[in-house]
Structures are given as C-alpha cells and as structure tokens.
Amino acid sequence: MARLLITPNQNYQKYGENVKKLFVEAIEKRTPLKFEFTYTVDRVTYKKTVNVTIPYTKRNVENAHAMLINSEYWDRKEHPKDPRILRIESPKVMSSDLNLLNHIDKRGIFFADVSKNHVKTQFVFNRGDVSEGILAAAITARFINKNKPITVAHIEDVMLVLDKYKKQGVTKISHIFHGPNKQYPGTKVGPDKVHCDISLKAADIEALLNPKVRKNDMSPYMGSSIILANKGNVAAKAKAVYENKKVDDIYVNSDGVGNQKGTKIDIKVKINKSEEYEDLNISVKAGDIKVFGNVSGNEFSTQQELWGRMGVPIENIEKEYNKLLSEGKESTALNMAYKFAAKDIQTKLISSNGGGFYEGFAKFIRYHATRDDPTVILMQLKNQRVAKAMEFANIGEKIANYTFQVSVSHTDNKHLQAMGLEDTRLPTLTIRSKQQRQEVMMGNEKSDFLSIRSTINPKDIQDCKYYRRNYIQKGKEMEQLFGIPDYESDPEAKDLVKSMVKSISKG
After folding, report:
1. CB proximity list for 188: less than 8 A, separation 6 or greater
2. 168 & 282 share domain
3. Are residues 280 and 133 in the same domain?
C-alpha cells in the first residue's frame, strides 16, 4: 500500500484524470475515500488506512479540480497548485483511534494522502493511450482534408462519425471516410478512401468518444495533434495523395492494445496495400517524458542485455556480481556494473577517437528508441504546448561530430534505506558531449545527451516485492540532435494552440 503523495511526479500526471474525477464525485456524493497515514507513538510506527469523507466546500471543489493541471506544476513543489500541498478543508475521519486523530489534527489531510491503490481501482482512462486515438483522428482528418490545414472542428467531425460505434465494452472502432482528389483539366478522379482504425482498452475508447473529456481533460493533446497533422511529413503525404491523379486507399491505424512490447509503433499510416509511407510510423508519448527505454530486473543477464547492446562486454564481472547478489548487496553489485561499463566506454572514447564506441552507441539508441525500426518517429504531445518529434534515421552519421564524456553518479534510494542495507546508493551513468568547436558541457543536467538510471520501487512493500528497472533517458542534447524542426515551437504553432484553446473554451 502507498499514498499518492509519495509516488514519483510523473505518476501524478498519470493518474490525474482519475484523481480529479474521483475527488469531485466523492465530494458531490459524499462518498468516503480510503486515505493512508503513517504516524509514530512512543517510538512505535503505525500505518493505517481509513475512510475519509470530504465536505462539499468551495475550496475543496477547487482543489479537487486542481489535481489535473499543467504538467510543469507537478514537478515544482513550491507551486500553490501542487497536489502534495492541497489540503482538505474540514475532513471527516471514520476512525476512533485517538492517536491517529491527534496525528491528523496536527498535520492535516492532503488530497495526495489518498491511497494509490484506491485511485488505481477507480481508474477511468489512460491519458497517453487516449492521446493516441486523438492523434489518429487528427491524421485521418488531414488525409480527408488533403492539402488544407485542419482545426479542432475537423477532428470533432471525425469523432462525430466514430461515435456511432460507441457501445459498452468496445475495444476497436473502424470507419472508412472519403477525401476528395485534385481535379485536373480533362480528367475526373474519384475520392480517396481513408480507413481509420483505433484499438484501445474499453475505458480509453469510452473516454476518446466523450466530448467532455476531449474538451476538458484532453484539449492540450488536441492542440498538439493538430500541429503534427499540419506540419512535416503528414501534411506532405496528404498533399501528395491529393495531387497524384489516382484513387488511393489510406490506412490510419492506432493500436494501443497490440504488441506494445515488441514494437515502438503506436500509429501506422499505409498508402494502398502494396505501398507504405513508413516515415509516418509514430510512437506517441503524452507529456514531457524523458524515459524512452527500459531494461527490467537485477539479474546479471539483465546487465548483459543492457550494456551488451552498447557493445560493452561485462562477462568478466559475472562471478563477483552474482556473489554480491547472494550476499544481499544488490546496490553494490549494480554500482560495480555501472562503473565497469563507464570505464569501458571511457577507454573506447580515448582510443582511436572513440571509434569503438560510436557504432555500439548508435545501435543502443536505435533499439531503445525504435526497436530497430528507423522509420519510427518518437512523438511527444505536450501539455498546452506544441508537439515535438524525433526521428532516428542515420544515427551514426548524426553523432559522428560529437565528442562524448561519461560519468557515474549515485543517489540514495529510500526503499533500500528502509530495508536497512549497508549500501543504499543506486547509480546513474550519464553521457554528455562537447560538440566540435564548443566548450565542454560536463556537470549540467540540461546538457545531458543520454543517461541510464538504476531504480528500485515497491510493488508490494508488505511482501517485500520490488520493481527493478534500468531507465534509458534522453537529454536536451539528444532531443536537439534528433528533433524534427517542423514540430518545434514557433510563432505559428503557438498562435494555433492559443486559438484552439480559445475556441474550445467558447464551445
């Protein structure tokens, strides 16, 4: 069991829609929610889960709605709308435990004290998955509209048609739209068929087809999707099929329930059965998420998989690594593996101008970003911002002008501390660069190219079950190198988002 309060910042965003819905309904219907508290009496620590009723007050309603806000606020604890400091006004605690009541009386109850498990059981929809459906609808709208930019109204037109397939439990919706072709003198070309197929979990389909969800919860992603559809490859391909003097079958497929581990592709676009515009394959991330790869586990085979893809051989430390694991020195083993990898990388960087490193590094990025599919575009849909995209073709050529440096840092892990282990530090390996004719940029997190971070988070604390993961994270340098300029923030894009948000608020 855990409180929402102690979860990583990105999880607040993950559960945001459901948290807001949960609290608003609880306030309106006087439904008690499960809250978790930890307190100490006479040096004995108690953990209790109790039901709490939230009174219907103006402040409580406003704070409940504030649980879903712009993602930048979730990372800034000092912000007045940060959920970790939103206090419940006059809560009613269903408990006779005087020690607990005294603890609450002194401390107060915050919205983020709610049980995370309670939030998860009430889960309504996933923001990232629903954003995939919205983006698919936007791309569909652009291929219907062909050589003209789309707006919110065009997406809503697509949604209006898809809505007729809405029914309880449905996980796939499909429809064939038609988009006119350019007419040339002396010829008459019939309309193209635009096949829109969206597969999501039933709850996500329901949310996607709910106009209130699109207007309120998902409006920022509507804006980002519009910008993607109106720029770059999507617009170019739509214009191409408009002007090619023939009838085409255009397939827009969004699959949020398929082989998610075996591929990075969330949205595929195909032109006719024998032709495929592969550079329109899109991997969607909702929010400003740094992590783009993950290798799970703490076994030595996990470390082999992690570093082997970068061309780092760690077989020589297998015996010592396993010995440390058997002695319960997990963090010591992980630190040893990360330091060994850093030393190998540094040696390669020094010798032959890093020639032995670049090939393996390119393969590493390609695999984790695209699952070895260079046609994949990694797309980030930003809150109230523009869409940002990265493409990973010709990685080796792009990094060739970079001179890299590697370092390992350590951070204490509170879960390891709670276990009473001797070594509670977990490693992060960071690769930074200095580009040709530029100064060294070591020591500045904003200039990271890529980092690999070891994490341990609880799965079930009572049963001593934990998730072990090695996160691969992109930095600002990597975003800049692989970023597609068309999707970067510009005056045109900003104006479009502003007008879009304004039109939604009026609607």
Report:
1. none
2. yes
3. yes
